[in-house]
Structures are given as structure tokens and as C-alpha cells.
Amino acid sequence: MSADVPNIVVVMADQLAPHFTGAYGHSVAKTPHLDALAARGARFDAAYCNSPLCAPSRFAFMSGQLISRIAAYDNASEFRASVPTFAHYMRMLGYRTCLSGKMHFVGPDQMHGFQDRVTTDIYPADFAWTPDWEAADERIDKWYHNMQTVKESGPAVATFQTDYDDEVGFAARRWLIDRGRDRAAGDAAPFLLVASFIHPHDPYVAKPEWWNLYSDEDIDMPKVNLPPEAQDPFSKRIMDGIEASYVPLTEEEVRHARRAYLANVSYFDSKIGEIVRTLDEMGETENTIVIVTADHGDMLGERGLWYKMNFFEHSARVPLVVAGPGVAQDVVSNACSLVDMLPTFVDLGGGDACIFGEPVDGRSLVPLMHGETDTADEAIGEYCAEMTSAPVFMIRRGRFKYIHCDVDPPQLYDLENDPSELVNLANDAAYTEQAAAFASEVAARWDSEKLKTDIVATQRTRRALHAAMEAGASETWDYNPPRDASQEYVRNHLDWTVAASRYRFPPLEKEEG
Question: Where does the record place the Choline sulfatase enzyme C-terminal domain (predicted)?
Fold first, then answer.
């Protein structure tokens, strides 16, 4: 390992579409801290998640592998302990690693290579949210999204989400300060921190101070409005599943949801600022790569759709802003995705593919971060969760995006000429060659029928196991952060002046002589 490898801090949002940030050009969104990072670093304009749903996307991010390779199909798929993650590899390279916040790990392994985990998760770690493709048209009311979330948008003093994110931010900053204390004591090991927040994920409810940053008059409404009868078949199934097909929304309800979303984007941006300020206070800014991204986006009413679960731009694209030593001030147009983060981290940490324990589907983005050219211009997506009965695949390459599902007509969009994805070119005679090439590639990349068989089999297994767990067959897997208060602050076994000296940061300089 090189002696001058950088620290890495990842600040991750949940359900943040880049379109709703100042750094990516939104005219109203107030995101000064993200904007500042983008101004001194690289902004990636075609970064995608690999599955537009929380847990699968995060498992792909952690493992550098597509979800079909690791059977991470939905929000109740187990993330197997045998899958190597970037946390494992970075520990091998000498990094101190920490997760503060959400990663939606499902299964008994709640660490996945992190040396430290300083908060619980916000969502259940068991098989409760397993879809049922054998009854794909039936709503699972207990955990499916619905329009009530939109209708209840507005301000509130506190929510479970703000409680959680305030804890995540505090724990992340305290962990960073502890690394500063370590350095003062002579331990200069590099660190990797993932601070992962739940905002701006719905419910669209914001603290008053953030809600009041905006006014109703400021809020832009969806640019594209498609009624149910104008939707492609997959989008129609999503509308049915989230009740958007038959639960009408008023203009005020839509406006308030979008206002609360922007308010929560600003709230998340404040967390970026707190973490960056902590790095400044530690004196580590010049040796730390800061990366801001998200697990997926949010349609937020565009095309009549809400939340995620599709491969349109507002759902599938994520922000990716990188700043730090060696990072060029640049806007990067190459398509990339979250599976690229693992090889990027390893590359930054002085490692290479020789340490990989399993095949990795991503590529290092370090050359692009450094302002170099890269011929790779591709992102691959897979959706295998609720509101479909067959896998959905996406290939984004260059200006084109191709979407395939066995039970639906194919979709081909020219994002350069049609950024709103309004014209499906799959059956356009002028694009026959491109459509045929993408169709052949899908057939070569995936055995969709076998994948569906495997998915249905895991769903049956997990539903049976969940029923057994509900009956008391095992202990909960939800993560409970360990804490020993007897070793914290001032205790009888430690002179208080010693404790004060240990906790003070920066430490007092010792007088010579």
C-alpha cells in the first residue's frame, strides 16, 4: 500500500435524483455544500444505480457486482456474508472502515467487512418485504408504496427519518473526530467512512426550518404528465401498484410533496456540510476524497410516476460528485454506475484486481476523476422486485438507453435528442440496427427465463422462512450497535485529567523543557 493513499468519505443519500440539486442545475434547489464540492471537483452527469430499489442497489454498490450475480433481487434478499465487499478489500489495504447509517443489509451478517458500525439501520433486516411474482398483480398493503405518502406531505417538527439522520450525522462526525485523536496519538492509518442518510426518501415531510426555505410559488411542477392509458405496460403496473392509477392527487398535494422533497434535499445537503467541516477541523481535507452519491432517484410525479422501481432518468440516475486530492475540476459525461465504486476505492487505496475474491462487474473511475479520457461509456441495470413478473434489464451506452422485459415491448431512447424519454425508437425504422443490436446483447447477457425461475424459488423460500421467524424460530437480525458506557467519558478507573486530555482535540501542545 502506498504511504500517501487518501482517506475516503462517502456521503450517501436515499432516493436523491440529481435533477433536484443545485449542482446539477435545478433553479430553486438550495444545496450549497454539494455545489461547493462540485465546483472544486468532478461532477458525473450519467451515473446510474444498478437496480432502482434500496437494498439491491446498495448490495451492488458494496460488492461491485450486478444483482443477478449475487441474487440480491429485492428489499428482502439476503446479502450473503460470503460476498466480498469494498469494506473487506479496504481493510486488506490497511484502511480503518466505518458505516454510519443505512445500508439495508438483509440477513444475519450486519457488518459485511466494516470494522466499525456506529448506528442501527432504519429498515428491517429480515425477509418481511419479499415480493410474490406468482401473484404479481396483487398489492402487499403492509409495505407497498401508496399515494397516502404524497397526500400527507408537509412540515413536522420531527419524524422517524429526521431522528435517524440526526443520529447518523452525529455518529459519523464523532467517529471522524476519534480518527483525529488517533492521529494525535501516532496512528496515521487511512480511513474510509460511509455516512448513509435516509433523506430525501419519502415520506415527504420536512422540518419547518427546511420547509420554510422554499415557498409554494418556487416549486416547479412535473414537466411530463402521462395518464395511465398513455403509459408503457411496466409503468402502468407501477402506477397500479402504488395506487397512482386510481387515487387522484390535487395540484396542491403534488406541489407540497415536491416542496418537502426539496426541503429534505437541503437538509441532506446540510449533513454534507457538517461532515466536510469536520474534515476541515481535523486538518484532513487535503488528504480526503469526498464522494456524494445516492442509491437511486425519485420520479416525484414525473410521467405520473412516484418513487423509483423503473429505469427512467429520474429513478435510475444518481448524483455522483467527487472532490479531493488529485480530482480534476470537470464535468464527466461517460455513463457509469454504482458497481464502479468498489474498483474505484481499491484503486484509490493502492490496490488492484489481484485482491478480488470474486469477479467484479465495475471499472475504476479514477482516470475520469483525474480528468483523463476513458473509452468506457456504459451502465447496466437490473430490476427484479415488486410490480413486475419478469426481470427488467437496462443498458445505457453512449447516447442510447435500452430497456427490456420479456412480458413488455422493448424501449429505446436517444437521451441526447430526447432527454425526457418521450419517443420510443425501438420500432422506428431509422433505428432498426441499434434496436436489434441491443436485443441481441440482452439475449447474450441474460437468461431471463432461468433468472425468473431462480427469483421465484428464492421468494418461496424466504416467505416460508419469514413465517417461521414470525413464529419465533430465530432471533432478530436487526443491528444493535454495541456500547460500553463504563469505558466512556470520566470513570473511577481513570483520572479525570487523563480523560480530559484524551478527549481534547486538537490536543494541547506540550511545552518543551
Answer: 454-505
Tell me how far CA of residue 42 lies from CA of 18, 192, 367, in angstroms: 14, 19, 11
- Non-local (6+) Cβ contacts of 265 within 8 A are 16, 20, 21, 29, 31, 199, 200
Distant-in-sequence contacts of 88-91, Cβ < 8 A, 24+ apart: 88/112, 88/113, 88/357, 89/113, 89/342, 89/345, 89/346, 89/349, 89/351, 89/355, 89/356, 90/8, 90/192, 90/345, 90/346, 90/349, 91/115
pLDDT in the model for residue 2: 43
Which H or E run contains 401? strand 400-405
Q: Which pLDDT does position 511 carry in this prediction? A: 63
Beta bridge partners of 155: 206
CA 492, CA 66: separation in Å to the nearest integer?
52
Which residues partner with 332 through β-bridges?
Answer: 44
Q: Could you tell me which residues are beta bridge partners of residue 117?
A: 99
| Cα Dmax for the chain | 86
- The catalytic position among 49, 54, 98, 405 is 54
pTM (whole model) above 0.85: yes
For 307, the grid coordinates are: 418513487
> Which residue type does 110 have?
Q
C-alpha Rg value of the chain to the nearest Å: 23
Active site residue 54: yes
Q: Mean pLDDT across the chain, nearest whole number?
A: 95
Cβ atoms of 98 and 193 closer than 8 Å: yes
Measured CA to CA, the distance from residue 250 to residue 136 in angstroms comes to: 29
Q: Is position 384 annotated as part of the catalytic site?
A: no
| Distant-in-sequence, close-in-space partners of 367: CB < 8 Å, separation ≥ 6 | 373, 374
Catalytic residue among 104, 112, 296, 314: 104
Give one DSSP letter per residue of 141-177, joined into a string: TTTS--THHHHT-EE-S--HHHHHHHHHHHHHHHHHH
Q: Can you tell me the distance from the alpha carbon of 59 to that of 99, in angstroms, rounded to the nearest whole number?
A: 14
- Asked if residue 59 lies in contact with residue 77, where contact means CB atoms within 8 angstroms, the answer is yes
Band the pLDDT of 84: cuts 50, 70, 90: very high
